[in-house]
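Example record

One chain of 283 residues, shown exactly as stored in the release files.
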Amino acid sequence: MFTNASTNALAAESDCFDTYAPSYRQHFNALALVTGTYTKKAHEGAVIYRGPSLIDGAPIVVIATLTDRNGKTGEVLQTYIMRADMDPRDASKSGADFAICGNCPHRGTPTDSPRSKVATARSCYVVIGQGPLNAFKSYKRGSVYQPVSGHADIAALGRDRTVRLGTYGDPAAVPSYIWESLVSDARAHVGYTHQSGVESADVRNDLCMTSADTLADAQAAWSRGERTFRVVSDYADMSPNEIACPADTRGIQCADCRLCGGTSVSSPKSIAIAVHGAGAKYF
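Predicted structure tokens for this chain:
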């Protein structure tokens, strides 16, 4: 499925890294990071992309980190897609997170209220002040996340692991050759996108589930041959074409479930999950 990953990655590498981060052209042995022979700081993560958002052209960064602290996902290689030039809280509050989330309805409403650190009425389950903010602060220190470029080194990061595309941010904001490389030797991958129909975004239905906000949205996606992930108020609202998220109903971690891999997963069923997370009250 990813037969051209190496060619695509190497061909596009110069444009992305030479233009936006010339200093990233330093040697980094990603395989050593994987096998545990590199520095302790290298284990904290790696920068796998820094360049323009494919949604609006603003500067973004993708940081890959390995963690087992998420009880729902288990040990998964997480990827944070963020504005490269501003605190993710400020990006949310100002609406500049459009670069990484597009018109996702769960972003909330931008605000200039001094009482709010992020957009108001966010129904997104991601708590920006936790994982994304920690990753951004480490990135800005400049010495924590080593830059990785080229197919072989990016592939080494995901080798034999379950990879989450877009722990925060939409994978379609990033050139898909990055994801092709990252998952090429992975055990499995999971990902979600709200960018269907956005012409400039790099939407890959083989890599990601289509995030559907209504049953009508899901049905339209199914008619296009896509698999969907839909948040429902109650599991009684599910369609016969959907199954309940096993992490929520059976306690099976994402690292073991692996059903949310888009059309690369042979399951005929799409996934639904009951509204959850810090923003559930705004759903």
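Notes: The longest strand covers residues 59-67.
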